[in-house]
Amino acid sequence: xxxxxxxxxxxxxxxxxxxxxxxxxxxxxxxxxxxxxxxxxxxxxxxxxxxxxxxxxxxxxxxxxxxxxxxxxxxxxxxxxxxxxxxxxxxxxxxxxxxxxxxxxxxxxxxxxxxxxxxxxxxxxxxxxxxxxxxxxxxxxxxxxxxxxxxxxxxxxxxxxxxxxxxxx
Length: 169
What we know:
Order of helices and strands: HHHHHHHH
Largest sheet: none
Distance between the termini: 75 Å
């Protein structure tokens, strides 16, 4: 009888909970840097939109492959070093700048993540997947620094990056 009374009381209290029993609605869990990175990269996935890819210097491509290999084995310092080497050759490559911004998110270097993502946006096509990654990175960096207004502005800019390709007949 006591157990039944205890269960009934718990159910009654849960029914009276103003959040509907879901405490996640009252407090939002902060994303980890790895989760931020995953969200940024997911935002860059191409849908049905225009995408322009420039020709790449073979030396830069070798360094990109080295960065990819380093990142896949978890050596973010070596990945960043390879990207810095690539940027020494292709100074304003928006893809490389954004990649470094994403690695800065992992290091919790919010200022560098935002600065590099905005520089990438400035040098890049201002549309498509790279644009979404730029503004998503800025959004997470601003959120991590407690800049709610800046975060909201960056979040709004993400939506402006989609440009559908012209119809093909």
